[in-house]
């Protein structure tokens, strides 16, 4: 049960972080949001690792964290850009397809969910897909937004699997710190190379947005930690599906705060996702 609760906590935190990141991308460039939020998270993590002596937990598994740190900025960049270009209530649920990566890994490692859990996985994935459907009376996404979203989903699913793998032998705090430092190095390099973020007034907007950027980065770190802990305490496949419900959180926040309209099929999808969650928790 603790594994399911941790995975749901990851889902809530990721949903809040994505809403915040998507909102900030409407004022700042997506790459600036990625680099600044991850830098803020690194500033919080480095002293924490040093304080607990986490640097001594370094192992060969850290290469998985490095890989996650390289892939992460591009996944977040694509996702935040998609959230800024399309309706959050539609774009975010489409990202649930990324769960196929960690779920597939769990199955390859020999995990076999029971009947109730299999039904829960099906309900959660189908619900996320329905929640992302657009059409008349609701938000829609164009080809560009669709490509960005699916690319981000694949990248984020891969990052989830890599972080879980990297922390297999312990040292979760160090894994998250290395991941964030790599995020900043890669994203910052791309930012400098493209000379992005120098538009008039960007510096002032960035300063005013620092508290929100820090909150986004902190929530993202906490979500990664919760998911990694959940995957170690229970089934990777089940934890991945529960944690992948974050788009429902983002969609509901967009509905409540941005007044985005949701169609009946999208509400049905959210309901199926919740039902799938209950089945997984019961299993």
UniProtKB/TrEMBL annotation:
Keywords: Membrane, Transmembrane, Transmembrane helix. The chain crosses the membrane at residues 27-50, 62-83, 89-109, 143-164, 236-258, 265-282. Residues 4-127, 146-280 form the EamA domain. This is EamA family transporter. Belongs to the EamA transporter family. It comes from the Bacteria. It comes from Kitasatospora arboriphila.
């Amino acid at each position: 049960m603790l594994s399911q609760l941790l995975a749901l906590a990851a889902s809530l935190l990721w949903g809040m972080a994505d809403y915040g990141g998507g909102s900030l991308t409407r004022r700042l460039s997506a790459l600036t949001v990625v680099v600044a939020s991850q830098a803020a998270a690194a500033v919080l993590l480095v002293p924490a690792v040093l304080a607990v002596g986490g640097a001594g937990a370094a192992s060969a598994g850290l290469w998985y964290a490095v890989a996650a740190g390289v892939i992460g900025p591009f996944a977040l960049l694509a996702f935040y850009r998609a959230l800024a270009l399309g309706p959050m209530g539609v774009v975010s649920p489409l990202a649930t397809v990324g769960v196929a990566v960690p779920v597939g890994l769990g199955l390859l490692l020999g995990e076999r969910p029971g009947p109730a859990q299999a039904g829960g996985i099906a309900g959660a994935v189908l619900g996320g897909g329905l929640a992302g459907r657009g059409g008349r009376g609701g938000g829609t996404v164009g080809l560009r937004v669709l490509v960005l979203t699916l690319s981000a989903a694949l990248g984020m699913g891969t990052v989830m699997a890599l972080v879980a793998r990297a922390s297999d032998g312990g040292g979760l705090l160090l894994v998250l710190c290395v991941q964030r430092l790599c995020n900043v190095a890669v994203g910052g390099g791309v930012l400098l190379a493209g000379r992005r973020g120098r538009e008039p007034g960007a510096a002032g907007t960035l300063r005013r947005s620092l508290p929100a950027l820090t909150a986004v980065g902190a929530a993202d770190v906490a979500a990664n930690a919760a998911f990694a802990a959940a995957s170690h305490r229970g089934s990777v496949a089940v934890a991945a599906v529960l944690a992948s419900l974050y788009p429902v959180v983002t969609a509901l926040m967009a509905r409540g705060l941005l007044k985005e309209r949701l169609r009946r099929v999208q509400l049905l999808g959210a309901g199926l996702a919740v039902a799938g969650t209950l089945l997984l928790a019961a299993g």
